[in-house]
Design goal:
Layout (H helix, E strand, L loop, with lengths): L1 H25 L5 H7 L3 H6 L1 E2 L1 H9 L3 E5 L3 H6 L6 E2 L17 E5 L4 H12 L4 E4 L2 H8 L3 H10 L1
Parallel strand pairs: 1-5, 2-3, 2-4, 4-5
Length: 155
């Protein structure tokens, strides 16, 4: 947990430095990440998270897009449908694959990479959440009858 917080903070700092450098070079003042961090409060903390049960409901309603940000080999070994695979390191070049009219939910087995992806997307002005119980928690909630009912409702 502490490692993922450190990773997120490092990513945010690197993005902020990059944003400031780009703003200086292009004379723009696009500091979305800075604005997000400056406005961060308890409501924002709650808004950035979603658990499997909430995600399942949004997917059934067609209101969310699940982005599995694991490496392609991990995704090929096992996946939770319906999801699309955009590895974390490929995310910046694949923003067009996101359905921004829906809530974008980033996920990985636990939540470390998903949190990084969520912060990156939010820094781009995209409404994103990360799956707090990870793909493992989602798989746990999609067993037996729950899996059957979910697949019937999502198709």
């Amino acid at each position: 947990m502490k490692k993922s917080i450190v990773l997120v903070l490092c990513l945010m700092a690197a993005s902020l430095i990059s944003t400031q450098a780009n703003a200086s070079e292009s004379n723009t003042s696009d500091n979305t990440l800075e604005a997000y961090i400056s406005g961060f409060d308890y409501a924002a903390r709650k808004e950035m998270k979603i658990d499997s049960k909430q995600l399942i409901q949004l997917l059934k309603q067609g209101k969310a897009q699940l982005i599995d940000i694991r490496f392609k080999e991990e995704y090929a070994a096992w996946k939770v449908g319906p999801s699309i695979n955009i590895p974390l390191n490929a995310l910046p070049n694949n923003l067009k694959k996101l359905q921004t009219d829906k809530v974008i939910v980033t996920a990985c087995p636990h939540k470390d990479r998903a949190a990084i992806a969520m912060v990156y997307l939010r820094s781009k002005g995209i409404k994103a959440k990360y799956l707090t119980d990870g793909l493992i928690g989602l798989a746990e909630n999609l067993r037996g009858d729950n899996a059957r009912d979910f697949i019937r409702q999502v198709k």
